[in-house]
Design brief:
The protein has 172 residues and is α+β, with helices and mostly antiparallel strands. It has one domain: Peptide Deformylase (Alpha-Beta Complex). Helices cover 30% and strands 29% of the residues. The protein has 3 helices and 7 strands. It has a 5-stranded antiparallel beta sheet with strand order 1-2-3-6-7.
Length: 172
């Protein structure tokens, strides 16, 4: 297992639509393992393959927040089939460090995906799990959480991101 480098916004791979996984082989299993290690090290609750520079429709999620009782969910080629309700909550992103904002999302979703054995699965998710899955599936479509905010808020956050990037360049 290896900790992968997390791609930072505005890297173009974060805006590309990810390719479907056609075969669950050793390379995909290793990628899942490395993504989980990266997620736990970050720390975060979800990570999409494009965030580690790989344009594949693969997501790892673990909202357990307990290193002794981890409960990862691996979603290969996930597709949200149903949504209902509404919730607003703060989101952040490992690809946009230290930037947070409120995002409206459906409260409950159903998502179809393949598991690591290639079995087609469908689960219903609510609240935090629903939010995390939606956030990560957005990454597979080239959508960032800031895209789901009002234009004024999005422009403010983009300005803040550019300012942080300039400071980082000056400090290095």
């Amino acid at each position: 297992m290896a900790i992968l480098e997390i791609v930072k916004y505005p890297d173009p791979i974060l805006r590309d639509k990810a390719a479907s996984v056609h075969q669950i082989d050793l390379s995909i299993r290793k990628l899942v393992s490395d993504m989980l290690e990266t997620l736990y090290e970050a720390p975060g609750v979800g990570l999409a393959a494009p965030q580690v520079g790989i344009s594949k429709r693969l997501v790892v999620v673990d909202i357990s927040n307990d290193p002794k009782n981890r409960d990862p969910l691996i979603l290969i080629n996930p597709h949200i089939t149903y949504s209902e309700g509404d919730m607003v909550g703060e989101e952040g992103c490992l690809s946009i460090p230290e930037i947070y904002g409120d995002v409206h999302r459906p409260r409950m979703i159903k998502v179809k995906f393949l598991d690591l054995s290639g079995t087609e699965c469908e689960i219903a998710a609510e609240d935090l799990l629903s939010r995390v899955i939606q956030h990560e599936v957005d990454h597979l479509e080239g959508v960032m959480f800031i895209d789901r905010m009002s234009k004024i808020k999005r422009d403010f956050l983009k300005m803040k991101i550019r300012k942080k990037a300039k400071l980082a360049v000056r400090e290095s």
